[in-house]
Write a structure and sequence with these properties.
The complex is a heterodimer of chains A (712) and B (503). Chain A is an alpha/beta fold. Chain A has 25 helices and 24 strands. In chain B, the strands form 2 sheets. In chain B, strands 2-3-1-4-5-6 form a 6-stranded mixed sheet, sandwiched between helices. Chain B is elongated, with a radius of gyration of 30 Å. The chains are: A alpha/beta (712), B alpha/beta (503). β24 of chain A pairs antiparallel with β7 of chain B.
Chain lengths: 712, 503
């Protein structure tokens, strides 16, 4: 079960012809897959396509009815390899992941897949995490399409276009025997909109039916001499077939305008941005009736040269709006126009930035520059200029602090990093090889722990140069997600094989937490509710690790002692610490309804949360630097003489106890207390409570009287 | 063409992770769709979900205009600076951030923001006071916007046991910037089917806040406490009035009050005795504010009320504290609340409250000290609201009467006198330097290692004070050293700053 429940969305997967689907872009894709007769679906979770996986996980009954096989792949490589089912059989398959990181992992399988070619449609749905809020390296998927000759769809960012692209993508894949990638930018994945639903379709052939009569075609095997033939087939047959299909189906769109001697060539995904820019310049209405002709590339690879020639032949200049770098499309357009002996000037990254997200403001600025230079006569209204930053903004800038992301309230990983901080107090700074996951946030304030991040599950391998014997050891932090993704083989096995002396902490929080709480092999249950719980400890022992410890992360003292031991023991070979603690976000989601129900039933429940006594807190904030819990915050000092703000635990506290343990382990201060609230107390509770109140109240009243004498 | 077609209404929501920005966004979509609008909403949740800020962007377009045109409008997925109608923000400096992003313009933008602060981790982690000065933010937002609705939505959420997103939704409805009726908003909440009653209460509070903004903004003044004053206290107050300059008086009275509470009235009188020496040297300073007396009064009171186990036990067992933690956890009257203290006494804290000869005896013998430390130094959970825990702390608090003979007291008094000696020595030659020396007491705070570290930094600076030439920016330099001491935990910034002075 993931972070969000998709019960409602699952129901919308049942919509049929004549009904309107409403929801997020990525959920529209989910529905479109079922309408396209997909036979199998796989993928690896990650923003912004996690919801596709989550919805399919929750939609088991519908998938069963239709005979669709669904699995959560162990990695993007596994997902890509799954598409091999479409090589020999006319069955449609779709996989999904976050790009470009996932595409990197998958690229071995993708090369093989696109070399052999496919019989059934193979669709790869890519959630692009580029620009604001991105958590990954900023690169383009376009390069993968070019190197392996896979076709790349980049539809206009509305649900109708996106869902049509799914159906068209399967057809294109089958016509050209080539896997097709459908890239969706993060905002398009999350955009709320609507489209007219169609009936779901059972696959023409299910995976079981395919297995009943296995087919073998030696020419589809990626070995010489066939690999040479595959390459020839790609350029001689598959490519022209694709171009032909794109043209006939009209996948790319031309929107004509009266300023016919200029035009804009754009990626489909940039359409709404360009139209808004034109609208603000007075060159289009809200419905996209534009004066500047647009050639919208819903297929960004391959280019359809005949269309390009037709669009450009009467134009003195075209603007290419292409997000990301290198500017592959502009290069290809220039090359083609040159080959076709057209004199059209290609404008692109000279008025638009070479790198970085194309925001509304950036596109507006680029389009304005283009129009001012090449079609000044079309400008009939005062061109809007972006508001210049006022003088007072300088002061405002200072008053607005950065807000780096951090670990959630009660996160089990927080005490682990507190222990690492305390370890560094003893041993001095340590080289820490970080990995990808929630624990990556430890590289940010307040922990500031971690020297490198090399890729998912690659943390330990990234420390392998430091694995030799000597007085110093590197520390690797890896999540259970990264561990199962490939950390076990490229990290642990590699370390055993090379007798690496490093220390590795595997954070076992029972979920792939950073991507929305999907299950991993060591979770209690799989995405479909099957019991899994494959042990990380057994896995590392199985590949030959001799030094394995398991510690609850919330036990800071024990964690510190175990880390110290691992960093200093004379034992050789990798030292593995499995740090256990259930993801608090998911835990709260799991237990909150249970507690609420128990309280409603009048059952005795003891709830815990933490607090800080403002009058003993001296405002040093060590506790915050060692914890960083969002619920541990500050407020102005109520003491008229003290200046520094005091620590304060707000109402979001879940009572995990870390702040108290930190106060103990780091010998901080006596200000932390745990409050135990007895809800629905029984008679015995009430009796004890009365006795305690009686005695304590008596003593307090006498102390109050003594104090009153000296009060003024 | 462009002139005739209606324009979409554009809305930005900026919320921190966990504040329900996504819920608010989906509510606006729902209310708009039911009122005959096409609605598009998008966001970039990603990692910002975890405590960062998330921006949600919505565009609303009248459905009948689309029907008339026979086409769907092309709605944007991202705000263009200068083209935003409504900005709804859950926190004050985030409202400032939307201004910096150019999303707020005086021609079109109505800003609806909560006036409360959620401190960022960079503000929280500072060793001293890292809270940014946000006093100008509200004014900057009001200046940048066409209209502005600002009030404390977090407080309203808490007082109505609701969540801030409900209050924000109510505030949006209350401003009337969208063409929907109050009932339409409320129907949206009802349709959502989750925590409907509490959401509606929060909504109503937000609505009222936006409609009668003034009322919501006025904080209740706490009633003044009238406390009978003992004769001895009257005498002390009279002494302050008679002998201390006006600008320093309030501070001094606060200090006396603190020390009387900490120890007794005689201790407060001793405080005035010490201050007398400073006042005599204080000609008022350049601005006539008697800064030296006022600052020394503040820090002397803090130092004299050093935090020992007696003080901690005293504060932990007070009746007022018991009322406070009940309130802080929001317990209902019929619920029982117990507290567990997290204490970690070391042998040092034990010796501190022993009679001076005994405490000194232990502390001077390494072997004995370490042995005892092994026995006592351990994280302890003390249940203060149960009899055993309470009696233990109550007994320790009772040691107050003998505090003057404790091992710690004598040492603290000696340190205080040497600090006052430095202030006195500089006062006539370099008034500003004397003030800065007084302020250095700020570094001595906390318990255990934190206290020891602060003391180390304080001593290092006092060492500089003894060697530095008066005049010649000495006061600025000492002030800078104090800031350096608060810049990091390992004392590197301070060491660097000191080495620069003497290089």
């Amino acid at each position: 079960m993931a972070e969000r429940s998709f019960a409602k969305e699952v129901q919308s997967l049942r919509l049929g012809a004549g009904e309107v689907f409403r929801g997020e872009g990525i959920l529209g894709v989910t529905k479109a897959l079922l309408e396209s007769g997909v036979a199998y679906v796989g993928g690896y979770q990650g923003a912004p396509i996690s919801h596709l996986m989550d919805v399919f996980s929750d939609a088991r009954p519908i998938l069963d009815e239709l005979g669709v096989h669904f699995e959560t792949s162990a990695s993007e490589a596994a997902a890509a390899a799954m598409l091999a089912a479409s090589i020999n059989y006319p069955i449609r398959g779709a996989v999904t992941w976050k790009s470009t990181v996932g595409t990197n992992v998958a690229s071995d399988a993708l090369s093989n897949l696109s070399s052999a070619g496919v019989l059934g449609g193979a669709l790869i749905i890519l959630g692009e995490d580029y620009g604001e809020g991105a958590s990954i390296i900023q690169e383009r998927t376009h390069a993968f399409a070019m190197k392996s000759q896979m076709w790349l769809l980049d539809p206009r960012p509305n649900l109708r276009s996106i869902t049509s692209a799914v159906a068209d993508g399967f057809d294109l894949s089958e016509v050209s025997n080539t896997p097709v990638m459908l890239e969706l930018r993060i905002r398009a994945c999350h955009v709320y909109g609507r489209f007219d639903a169609k009936d779901n379709k059972r696959p023409a052939m299910t995976v079981q039916e395919a297995l009943q009569s296995p087919r073998r075609d030696a020419s589809k095997i990626n070995l010489p001499p066939f690999t040479f033939l595959h390459e020839q087939d790609k350029v001689a047959r598959r490519w022209p077939a694709a171009v032909d299909f794109v043209t006939r189906r009209g996948l790319n769109e031309i929107f004509d305008g009266d300023a016919s001697d200029v035009g804009i060539i754009l990626q489909g995904g940039m359409y709404n941005f360009v139209v808004r820019a034109l609208e603000l310049l007075g060159l289009s209405d809200t419905f996209g009736a534009t004066r500047i002709p647009l050639y919208v590339l819903n297929v960004t690879y391959p280019l359809v040269e005949a269309e390009l020639t037709r669009f450009c032949c009467d134009k003195k200049a075209v603007l290419v709006v292409e997000e990301g770098q290198p500017d592959f499309i502009a290069q290809a357009v220039s090359r083609h126009l040159n080959d076709a002996d057209l004199r059209t000037t290609v404008v692109g990254k000279d008025v638009l930035p070479m790198a970085g997200e194309y925001t509304g403001a950036v596109v507006l600025d680029g389009v304005r520059q283009f129009v001012e230079r090449w079609a000044p006569e079309t400008i009939t209204m005062a061109v809007a200029t972006p508001p210049a930053p006022a003088e007072s903004f300088v002061e405002l800038q200072r008053a607005v602090p950065a807000r780096p992301p951090g670990l959630c309230t009660g996160c089990p990983e927080r005490p682990l990093f507190t222990a690492v901080k305390l370890l560094e107090r003893e041993l001095g700074p340590v080289h820490i090889s970080a990995d990808i996951g929630c624990h990556s946030f430890a590289t940010l304030p307040p922990f500031n722990l971690g020297n490198t991040i090399m890729g998912y599950g690659l943390g330990l391998a990234a420390a392998s140069a430091f694995g030799g014997s000597g007085d110093h050891r590197a520390l690797t932090i890896m999540g259970d997600g990264g561990f199962w993704h490939n950390g076990l083989s490229s990290g642990i096995t590699n370390a055993v094989f090379n007798d690496d002396n490093g220390v590795i902490v595997v954070v076992d929080n029972s979920y792939s937490a950073a991507t929305g709480g999907q299950p991993v092999p060591s979770s209690k249950l799989s995405a479909t509710g099957r019991k899994v719980r494959y042990s990380i400890q057994n896995a590392v022992k199985g590949v030959g690790v001799r030094w394995v410890r398991t510690v609850r992360t919330y036990d800071i003292a024990k964690m510190l002692a175990t880390l110290r031991d691992a960093m200093t023991t004379r034992a050789t070979g990798p030292k593995v610490i499995v740090a256990e603690g259930e993801c608090q976000l998911n835990r709260q989601r799991r237990i909150k309804p249970l507690i609420a129900a128990a309280i409603n039933d009048g059952k005795r429940v003891v709830q815990e949360r933490f607090g800080v006594d403002a009058d003993t807190c001296t405002g040093d904030h060590s506790c915050i630097r060692l914890s960083g819990c969002p619920s541990l915050t500050i407020r102005p000092n109520p003491d008229p003489l003290r200046e520094d703000p005091v620590a304060y635990v707000d109402n979001s506290c879940v009572g995990c106890g870390v702040c108290g343990s930190v106060a103990h382990a780091a010998v901080l201060c006596p200000s932390f207390y745990k409050a135990q609230i007895v809800v629905n107390p029984n008679r015995w509770d009430r009796f004890l409570g009365a006795v305690r109140r009686g005695v304590i109240g008596f003593l307090q009243r006498s102390a109050d009287r003594r104090r009153a004498v000296r009060e003024f | 063409m462009a002139e005739s077609s209606p324009r979409p209404t554009t809305i930005v929501i900026a919320a921190l992770g966990g504040q329900g920005g996504g819920v608010l966004s989906s509510w606006i979509v729902d209310v708009a769709e039911h009122a005959g609008f096409l609605a598009q909403a998008t966001s970039v949740p990603g990692v910002a979900q975890r405590t960062g800020t998330t921006i949600y962007y919505l565009e609303l377009f009248p459905e009948e205009a689309a029907t008339a045109a026979g086409r769907d409008p092309v709605l944007a997925l991202m705000p263009v600076p200068g083209e935003v109608d409504i900005v709804v923000v859950s926190e004050l400096v985030e409202a400032g951030r939307t201004v910096l992003r150019g999303l707020v313009t005086p021609e079109r933008t109505t800003v609806i923001t909560s006036s409360h602060r959620e401190y960022s981790v960079v503000e929280k982690a500072v060793m001293g006071d890292g809270i940014v000065d946000a006093s100008g933010v509200r004014a900057a937002v009001e200046e940048a916007a066409k209209a502005c609705v600002v009030f404390d939505m977090a407080a309203l959420a808490e007082s109505t046991s609701s969540v801030i997103s409900s209050v924000m939704f109510g505030a949006l409805a209350g401003t009337g910037v969208l063409p929907f009726q109050r009932e339409q908003y409320e129907q949206t909440i009802t349709r959502s089917g989750i925590a409907v009653d509490r959401s509606l209460t929060g909504f109503a509070a937000g609505y009222a806040g936006a409609v009668g903004e003034r009322d919501a903004d006025a904080a209740d003044e706490p009633p003044l406490m009238v406390v009978p004053v003992a004769v001895e206290a009257e005498a002390l107050l009279a002494r302050v009035e008679a002998t201390f300059p006006v600008p320093a008086r309030e501070r001094i009275i606060d200090g006396m009050r603190r020390l009387a509470d900490y120890q007794d009235l005689r201790y407060a009188a001793a405080y005035l005795d010490r201050l007398d020496g400073i006042r005599e040297l204080d000609g008022g300073g350049e601005d006539g504010q008697y800064r030296l007396t006022a600052e020394t009064a503040r820090y002397l009171a803090l130092w004299m009320s050093y935090e020992d186990a007696i003080r901690v036990a005293d504060l932990k067992t007070r009746s007022a504290r018991f009322e406070r933690f009940r309130k802080e956890v929001g317990a209902d009257p019929e619920q029982l609340v117990y507290v567990v203290e997290y204490l970690h006494p070391r042998v040092e804290e034990i010796c501190d409250i022993l009679p001076a000869p005994l405490g000194g005896f232990v502390m001077r013998r390494d072997g004995l000290r370490k042995l005892l430390d092994k026995v006592v130094s351990r994280g302890r959970h003390v249940p203060t609201a149960k009899l055993g825990g309470f009696l233990l702390l109550y007994m320790i608090a009772g040691l107050r009467r003998w505090r003057r003979w404790s091992y710690r007291h004598g040492r603290e008094m000696a340190l205080i006198d040497s600090w006052l000696g430095r202030i006195t020595a500089s006062a006539s030659a370099d008034y500003a330097l004397a003030v800065e020396i007084a302020r250095c007491q700020r570094l001595i705070k906390g318990y255990g290692d934190t206290h020891a570290n602060g003391m180390k930094n304080f001593n290092a600076i006092m060492n500089v004070v003894d060697r530095i030439d008066h005049g010649a920016n000495a006061s600025d330099r000492i002030g800078a050293l104090r800031d350096a001491a608060l810049a990091d935990e390992d004392g590197r910034a301070l060491r660097d700053a000191i080495s620069v002075i003497f290089e």
